[in-house]
Write a structure and sequence with these properties.
Layout (H helix, E strand, L loop, with lengths): L4 E4 L7 E7 L5 E12 L8 E6 L2 E8 L2 E6 L13 E3 L2 E3 L6 E3 L4 E2 L11 E6 L5 E6 L1
Parallel strand pairs: 1-4
Antiparallel strand pairs: 2-3, 3-12, 4-5, 5-6, 6-11, 7-8, 8-9, 9-10, 11-12
The structure holds FE2/S2 (inorganic) cluster.
């Protein structure tokens, strides 16, 4: 049976470092890097974990040792994606089985009733194993 963790991040636990990234077209995109109250060792292969960061609800999942993050609310009818399941990189929504690629948060063409959601970069501090997500 899959274990689902529900984590509420209060402002006092959030490390918010404003970072500026220059992109090719010379626009500056301001992104925030949030520290989650999780370490790499808290996630297990194929497990989904929900976290709330500010006003965003995200789901994290580990596939082949890499952790990915995307919106946790399904674009179809709002299904809780953290209650879905992973099959390789396919994250399936528990309500109507819409499929997303957890690497990109793009909807699978096999389930055209769902549309893309947002994907977030995950950064792991190699020393402390703390998990950070970058949200713009
Ligand atoms: S709510 Fe996710 S597929 Fe319908």
């Amino acid at each position: 049976m899959k274990q689902i963790k529900d984590i509420k991040i209060k402002n006092k636990f959030i490390t918010n470092k404003r970072q500026s990234y220059k992109v090719k077209n010379r626009l500056n995109i301001i992104m925030s890097k949030f520290k989650l109250p999780l370490k790499r060792t808290d996630l297990k292969e194929g497990e989904l974990v929900k976290a709330e960061v500010g006003d965003k609800s995200i789901v994290l999942g580990m596939v082949k040792g890499t952790i990915y993050a995307m919106d946790s609310v399904c674009s179809h009818q709002g299904g809780p994606l953290e209650e879905g399941w992973l099959d390789d990189y396919d994250l399936t929504c528990p309500w109507h089985q819409g499929i997303f690629d957890i690497r990109t948060a793009k909807a699978s063409p096999k389930t055209n009733w769902v549309t893309d959601v947002n994907s977030y970069s995950v950064v792991i501090d190699e020393k402390s194993e703390e998990i950070f997500v970058e949200i713009d």
